[in-house]
Task: structure prediction
Amino acid sequence: YPAVPQGSNTVGAMVLADTHLLGARNGHWFDKLRREWQMHRTFQTAQTIFRPEHVFFLGDLFDEGKWCPPEEFDYYVRRFQSLFYVDEAKTKIHVMAGNHDIGFHY
Result:
C-alpha cells in the first residue's frame, strides 16, 4: 500500500459491495458462520491497516431482506453493524440499499 506524503490533502475510503449476509431461509448455518467470521476478520484487518475515514457499502448487504418481517430485518441490521463495526469518531459509514435488501429482483 503506498505511503501518503505528510501534509497531503487526501481522504481515505474503503468500498465494499454485495456482502449478502445469509438469513434463516437459505443456506446452511455453518456456511453462514464461516462467511460472517471471514468477513468480520477481513474487514477489521483492513480497518486496522488502512484506517479509512469513510466506508461505502454499495448494496446487497442482506441476501433475504426482501422476505423479512420488520423484526427479522432489524436483527439483520444489528448483525451487519456488529460484523462491520467502526469507531464512529474516526470513520463514517455510508450505505446504499440493493435489490436483495429491499426487493426489485426476479
Notes: Helices lie at 29-50, 70-83, 99-102. Residues 21 and 79 are 9 Å apart (CA to CA).
